[in-house]
Please model this.
Amino acid sequence: MGQIGLNFQIQRKIYSVTELNLAIKGLLEKQFPDVWVAGEVSNFRGASSGHLYFTLKDAGAQLRAVCFRNQARYLKFKPQDGISVIARGRLGVYEARGEYQLYVEYLEPAGLGALQLAFEQLKAKLAAEGLFDPARKKPLPVLPRTVGVVTSPTGAVIRDILRVLRRRFRNMNVLIYPARVQGEGAGEEIAEGIKQFNRERKVDVMILARGGGSLEDLWPFNEERVARAIAASKIPVISAVGHETDFTIADFVADLRAPTPSAAAELVVHPKRDFRSELGNRVRHMAQLVQLKISDARARWTELRSHRAFQTLAARVRERAQRVDDNITSIERVIQTRLERARRRWLELSAHLLRYEPARLLQISRLQLHEQKARFERSVEEMTRRVGELLSARRESWLRASAGITRYDFARSLALKHAARAERVTKVGTEFQSYLVERRNRLAQATAILNERSPLIVLDRGYSITRDASGRIVRDAAQVEVGDELSIRLARGELEASVNRKKP
Amino acid sequence: MSAPAKLGKEDSFEKNLERLDAIVAELEDAELPLEKALQLYEEGMKLSEVCHKQLSEAEGRVEILMKKAGGKLAAEPFESEEGEKP
Model:
């Protein structure tokens, strides 16, 4: 002991604080220029300068650590309190405080990989902001006019997408935004593609696509800028990155996640024939519903028709119709009677005329009568036809009116129509009556003329009519005796004569 | 561009399809008078025709946005490497 104290006294060297710290710094930096150390981050502080300050600790000790901006830039994740990390760096002394610390050059999360951690962190952050909220998801258009695709213009992905789109909807328009999908700057290009489509507004929906790969390969789709661009897009976005098992941040923010690029093409538009059959279904459905309506209306009409109030009306309609029929029948009967009477009269006249000898006269009269008779019969036929037509027209319109009757006030319109028809029938009857009267008059006139004129004409031609004292016409010499008084009618005047001699 | 101007005038396929569905729903109403039903049916048939037309409207263009001098983007026809294959 004493010796040591002696030595101390003898070789005493007094350091200034600065000198000592410098000496320690030299020792530490020389001894620990490159160390790996594992610990948990605490007291984390990111300064505005970009430097990161924190403490690494374990159960029993602490170590101050700093990561300058130049190194911090390359960290794939953001250190935070409580996470376990492995740090690599050099030890150094901050002389002003007499503190030593680890100057961190590389930092990685212990356990999880750095990328994995960064993924989890960004996911948690965006989830907290509500960017994955289902309510934010925009519906896809039913039929896009143009489909946008942000992807590499070379390789299988774009070919797969185009092939599927072609197969499903041959005439679909596609607009491609060429973007690198892995490596430095890829995230920026993808985000720019989304923004470009939003500026141009030519596409109705867009697909972000990339084939399978490692977490590093897919990394651009985990970048915050891509997530933000998707969230800000007014156009629906479908993410189709990697294989079915790969999930990226883009998948969570996108309006729809497709397991693969081909699947995205299938989700973006239905096959055209599906659209066609959907339209067909609707048209068929409409037709069925309308059919149903029509048969409903028919059933209601039948029901209504059998209703008592309507039955009464219907009976009245039938009664009217029958009365019309009766009228027609009696008119026909009248016509027949008149015709028969005229024919009889004609026969009588003919017989009468036959008694007067001159055949030519008779011939003329007969021809005249024939003509009159034919005209008369034609008129009768015409009238019968007109009355028949009128009746059937009325019947048809009655049927139409009946068919048109639904729930509205059919009774009133029916009554109006019946009144109109009754009036028409009456009018036709009247017309026919006056026609008959006229015909009859003309026939009577003709007959009278014949009656009066014919004997006179006979006399004109030199014949005479001889009557006995009792006024009988003398046709046979045996009718008279010699000495009888006779009266002889000439064309003009009369003679009184007596029989002088008889020749048989 | 003629396409957007035309779109302004007529309703989108989606709108037409929605209207068609609305018509079907209206027709399902048992209280709907027959006359109105026939009117709706006619409208529905017209809409269906318009929809069929809209399905055939797109020309099947496949284009790619290319950067031109001055940084402007322009759409050009896209030739897939295996364009010749069926």
Notes: The two ends of chain B are 31 Å apart (CA to CA). Chain B touches chain A through 43 residues (CB under 8 Å). Strands of chain B lie at 62-67, 73-77. Chain B has one domain: 13-77.
